[in-house]
Amino acid sequence: MANKNTHGITLIAALLAQLSMAGTVAAANGQLADLSLEELNDIVVTSVSRQEERLSDVAASIFIISASDIRRSGARSLPEALRLAPNLQVAQLDARNYAISARGFDGAFANKLLVMIDGRSIYSPLFSGVFWDAQDVVLEDVERIEVISGPGATIWGANAVNGVINVITRSAQDSKGALISAAAGSDARDGTARYGAALPNGGALRAYARYAEADDTYAANGLNTVTGWRRRQAGFRADWEPQGLSVSGDMYQGSLGQLFTDDIAISGANLVGRYQHKLGDGSDLRLQLVLDHTERNQPTAFVNRLDTFEFEAQHGLRLGQHGIAWGGGYRESHDRSTAGATLSFLPGHLAMHWANLFVQDEYALTPQLRLTAGAKAEHNNYTGLEWLPSARLAWMPDASRTLWGSLSRTARAPSRIDRDLYAPPTQLVVNGVPHYLIGGGPDFVSELVRVAEFGYRAQPSPRWSWSATVWYADYDRLRTLEPNPAPLPSQGLNEFRNMAQGRTRGIEAWGHWQVTPHWRLQGGAVLQRVEIQRVPGSRDVAVDTGLDTNDPNSRWQLRSSHDLAGNMQLDWMLRRVGSLPHPQVPGYHELDMQWSWQATPQLELALIGRNLLHRSHAEFGALPGRSLFERTGMLKMTVRF
Amino acid sequence: MRQTSHILARIAASLLLALAFCCAAGAAGQQQNLERSVKAAFLYKFLGYVEFAAELPPQLTVGVVGAADIAAELSQIAVGRSVNGRPIAVKALREGDSLAGLQLVFVGADVQRPAQVLRSAQQGGVLSVTEIDSGLQQGSVINFRLIEDRVRFEVSLPSAEKSNVKLSSRLLSVAWQVQKGGQ
């Protein structure tokens, strides 16, 4: 047995050596000029595009999920695509719920991550988190997903505490023609039709319709979790690139399973307009307008209707050695919540607003040394003004290396769940006095965090690059649920307060290696410690409400992308997630694979296997009710014409 | 036990070997990224698929505005290579420099006012190539785009006509999109 193994290793070594040499030959750039036009057309340049390079200049921990990463992963939903970012912790709870976070504080109600689709924030002011079961995008039309771990509040505002995800779809200019894709597997099915065409005045338009559904999952005890779902969505995007104008919109409707009740009904529509213009003096102006309507009827819990209006303006200019970005925005949300049987948001109708002004200066101290300092002042209806300053220093000895460090202070402003959640909706009478069990959080203030980061990024050769970041974050005034010592009538026996502190520290690193022109390896790992403790006097009972967080100390992933002969591609991703402490979830490792075949220029077929290593595994939640995820297979067909 | 350490030694050896090859390649290769190399190679190739109205000088000259990396890359490609028997010279230009004597001009994404450079290219009968989304609209003949992680190029026939250059059908057949005139 041992003999066989060593033989295998020798073979691998020989193979690696051979493949590496092949790569060296192709990368010698003089020889690129000897390739034909068609061959040049086929060279994959993913990891190092100009745009990405610009992003990698940013003194922050940023990972880009490219369009080809998504296509080659076989991901069929946004949360699954996010698994490709090593700096995100993605755990599936059941058929429709996910816990997604960066740098700790993960949970079903994770509230320290800002998520945007084409600049439109999709976080719910109900709980400062994302209802992942209501979000859908046509993954084929996603250009890239930028994932920043660490604070981004100076630019993006409160809520960008532990990270920012920005899903960027292609310009309509780049998605002309028809696309039909259909996937069917043992636990989910989806279909998309999209058509894009040029508009007369130099613009382009695409429109799509999409349907997706997933089956219920089962818990370890064999019980059906009844969390299967189906969604319909349609939308469009129009771009007039010469004029710098872009308009997009979506509308959707869905039905989501919930145990012991009728299905949750969701629906919504949004419209985004964006205008980018280079002014006469060479400065950039960017304006964005968002209208968003969402509805969520969650039987027994609440019926929530939310209307949001948002306007943003940003101006970027150069003054000598200074690159200045400044701007402001105003966001207003009208929330109408009707109480269900178990909880209510009071007042039922609330107008919320967030107004901000920011300025950031990037100053070149020397050609290699860049200092970026800025602050955002954001006003919200709960706590008034919040200051969100940051300073970043980047040293770039040459184009392929960046050493950077940053200091920031950010805040998570209260959301309705922190202030306005009352349960049960009709007060209990205790000793003749009416009380809520949970009576909101009248004194709840913003959670605060101070973060120090230090990172290094290098691309020693065109085929090999890596990035590592260490961080330390100090959290204060974290949310707890405290017994009210002497509740007055109609107050809560428990209230949300800010009686916990926390510290996280860790290292996140990733890299890619273009082993040969046809084989690419990518890997990433995170080691972290998340420590949360109550301050003296706290008698936190939040653990019992499911609002707690649960994080692994380590996780890693390895991805391989192979271009095979005959227009075939083979991709696999191995991931390992360490155990979760409370509730205890065992660590797991799993393998996803995709084999795809471009049968004709119009037709692509793909065979996708998920969770191939084990019969089933759990990712989050407490026994006995938590879902187990099984080995699944899926067949996908994509037609373009 | 001995076998285990034997295996470990083999693994270490193979890793070192792999590492050695990767880093040797890194040192030998340029400190440039692949996207820039591919674009530079394309620029060189374009010269072979274009007919210019004006009589060609004995040496072809390519101007590169606002993209020092492409200029460096292309200079290397030009060494020892020729197009139809004519050697190639590469000039790194700044915004506002004259385009006189050029056959091809590449306008980098960082150029502040590409439309001005493109206008003088059209007037001077110079084949212009850009790498911004609105390149063709701003008046370039060929524009690079990143499509599905590959460098592709789109072509504007009206701009070609205005610039007095004729693109071969072979070039057009490889183009990702061809904008035709007629309106």
Structure description:
The complex is a heterodimer of chains A (641) and B (183). With 641 residues, chain A is mainly β. Helix content of chain A is 9%, strand content 57%. Chain A has seven helices and 38 strands. Chain A has a 22-stranded antiparallel β-barrel. Chain A starts with a helix and ends with a strand. Chain B is α/β, with parallel strands linked by helices and 183 residues long. An eight-stranded mixed sheet of chain B has the order 3-4-2-5-6-7-8-10, with helices on both faces. The radius of gyration of chain B is 21 Å and the shape is globular. At the A-B interface, helix 1, helix 2, helix 3, helix 4 and strand 26 of A face helix 1, helix 2, helix 3, strand 7 and strand 8 of B.
Task: Classify the helix fraction of chain B into a percent range.
Answer: 40-55%
Low-confidence stretches of chain A: 1-29, 46-53
Number of strands of chain A: 38
Pattern of helices and strands of chain B: HHEEHEEEHEHEEHEHE
Q: Could you tell me the number of beta strands of chain B?
A: 10
Q: Which term fits the overall shape of chain A? A: globular
Largest pleated sheet of chain B: 8 strands, mixed
* Rg result of chain B: 21 Å
Q: Quick check: average pLDDT of chain A?
A: 88
User: Taking all residues together, what is the mean pLDDT of chain B?
Assistant: 80
Which residues of chain B sit in consecutive blocks of at least 5 with pLDDT less than 50? 1-32
| Number of helical regions of chain A | 7
**Chains forming the largest contact:** A-B, 58 and 62 residues
